[in-house]
Design brief:
By secondary structure, the protein is mostly beta strands. It has no helices and eleven strands.
C-alpha cells in the first residue's frame, strides 16, 4: 500500500511553534515534488509551500513566508513543515501532497489550532 500520513498537529498558543511531518509509506520521496496545503472550514484549500522534484527551490505563500519552512527529511521518507510564530488565522487542517511520475498522493490531514 502507498499512502501519506500527517502528524504533529495540535493546539498551540499564538506565537508558538509546531513541526508537522508527512510520512510516506510504500514509496520514496526521492525525485518527488512535495507540497503543503491547508484548509479551514468554509474556505478554499490554500497552497502554502512546495519544492520541485529537481530544482530544489522552495516556494512559500505570502501568508506564511518567513514563518514556515518546508523540507524533506535526510533519508527522503518524510516531508516536514516547521511552523513558527503561529497566528490564530493559521488554524486549519494541514495536508501534504506528493507528486511522483504518473501519480499524485494526498495525506488525510492533521488539525492545527492556534488559540490562547
Amino acid at each position: 500500500q502507498k499512502h501519506l500520513a500527517e502528524s504533529g498537529g495540535g493546539l498551540v498558543q499564538p506565537g508558538g511553534s509546531l513541526r508537522l511531518s508527512c510520512a510516506a509509506s510504500g514509496f520514496s520521496l526521492v525525485n518527488s515534488a512535495i507540497a503543503w496545503f491547508r484548509q479551514a472550514p468554509g474556505k478554499a484549500r490554500e497552497g502554502l509551500s512546495c519544492v520541485g522534484s529537481t530544482d530544489n527551490h522552495a516556494y512559500y505563500s505570502d501568508s506564511v513566508k518567513g514563518r514556515f519552512t518546508i523540507s524533506r527529511d535526510n533519508v527522503k521518507t518524510a516531508i516536514n513543515l516547521q511552523m513558527n510564530n503561529l497566528k490564530p488565522e493559521d488554524t486549519a487542517v494541514y495536508l501534504c501532497h506528493v507528486t511522483v511520475p504518473g501519480k499524485n498522493y494526498w495525506g488525510q490531514g492533521t488539525q492545527v489550532t492556534v488559540s490562547s
